[in-house]
Amino acid sequence: MPDQHVRLAGSERPHPTKSVGVADPVDPNEEIAVTVSLRDAGKNENPEQRRADAEKVKESLGRYGLRVTDERLEVGSIELTGKAKDLNRAFQTELKLYHGQRQGLFRGREGELHIPADLDGIVAGVFGLDKRRVARRRVFPGHGAHGSFTPQDLEEQYQFPEGTGRHQKIFLLEFGGCYFDEDTETFCRNHGLTPPAVDIVPVGYTPPRTLEELEQLPEQDQELAFDVAGEVMMDVQIVAGLAPEADISVLFADWDQKGWIDLLDQVILAAPGAVSISYGLTEDHPDWSLLGIQEINRRLAAAADKGVTVCVSAGDDGTGDQMRDRRCHVDFPASSPHVLSVGGTQIVRGDVTESWWVSPGDRSVRNGGSTGGGVSTVWRRPTWQTVQVDSLNPGAIDGRVVPDVAALAGPPFYDLVFVGRPSPNGGTSASAPLWAALVARVYEQLPPTKQQRFLTPLLYGTGTNSRPLGTHACRDVTAGHDNASFPFPGRGYPVRVGYDAVTGFGEPVGVELLKALMTV
Description:
Layout: E1 5-7, E2 19-21, E3 31-38, H1 47-62, E4 67-72, E5 77-83, H2 84-91, E6 96-100, E7 104-108, E8 114-116, E9 123-127, H3 151-157, E10 169-175, H4 181-190, E11 198-202, H5 211-214, H6 219-242, E12 247-253, H7 257-270, E13 274-277, E14 281-282, H8 290-305, E15 309-313, E16 331-332, E17 340-348, E18 352-355, E19 357-358, E20 369-370, E21 374-380, E22 399-402, E23 405-408, E24 417-418, E25 421-422, H9 428-445, H10 455-460, H11 469-473, E26 474-475, E27 507-508, H12 510-518
Parallel strand pairs: 10-12, 10-13, 11-12, 13-15, 15-17, 17-23
Antiparallel strand pairs: 1-8, 2-6, 3-5, 3-9, 4-5, 6-7, 14-16, 17-18, 19-20, 21-22, 24-25, 26-27
Helix pairs in contact: 4-6, 6-9, 7-8, 9-12
């Protein structure tokens, strides 16, 4: 009698977007690692039950030839490895090959998963069978080194408090790419800084460390890795320039849902004070599975419960977020209620700060760009988010509003080094690591009892004069274009006095943020 299976609700995946099926089959003997998420992942309120659940998973899936290669029971994750043909049987699916416009050849699946009936109510998700990308990031290059902001410029612009980030832990989460030690050393030498000790942590992906190592990869993998390498180096150099004595760890994973789960498991286990994520995908993009964003959000909630402030770029494509319809969209995980969502600004006409917008507000169209922002259609507005912004989507829920804050994303860009050359860069991908470095610098000056607190709800809480703390800790941005992208949806949220869905509370004033956090 065949084993009984039950459907895993929320696991459905459609045909991958912008991809075509490939006639060649997946090698049935290919070894594949999957991460199984247990019920109540992120929490560990009943360790005895968690251990029992884990043993049941190992026993049940072991019957299909799957073996445990990692256990993270505090978080609620088990990694198992097995042959493709055995995974097909275990989860009642058919793994296939696809070719995507940007991703090239990858493994995927369609439809729902089914799990052995004895795991019903125990297994909350299975990730890693489908390798489609659910993280997006694209270089938004500057136009020459002249005038781009140095670490000293940024410290002055945002009035960072004294310090170097000493004894503070910062995690940078990356998907694919490379890490070039020489670029970090050159950057630091250019600015009179001692290069920090950067800990490179492979989490299912090992980045090339030199161009010679990069050239050893298959041609398709070389292109994909090099395409994002400049962004990785931007994250590291911004943090190294602003918090040079912090403990900086750069974690690398693959671009799929399993990559997100595995990276955030490490965040929960280590509980750094600040995390920077410069990746995301439209929250209602069809390439997410419902279970995928739910389990990622669970882990973000667990990190917030540990006092971790996860700084996430709000996106660089305005209200369209590269979706070609008439609705307004926001990026995930920037739209999660458990992160600090960071939008973008630019400096024009000498020293005027305004919202970041370059026609037509979308990176994929004529090198445009715009800060992401708006109202979530997936996550309801948390009770602590005491602002009123109505969604531009008729009939939408009263959703989480993003961003919370902002920082430089556009001109004059950031002074950076890539493959030994000046390489100014920006986007909200730069704003997020700046805020992570600022959190570390502020924590360095706070007493221990006031460190390691999830920052976002505090910004919306009452400060002096019965106003939100964020209005004291940030400089309001009142000028600039709305964040519409064209041609779709062709409308955006306005910049206004006070909090708005373009730059949030505004840009940081570091010394005021420190002062405000001393009082709460």
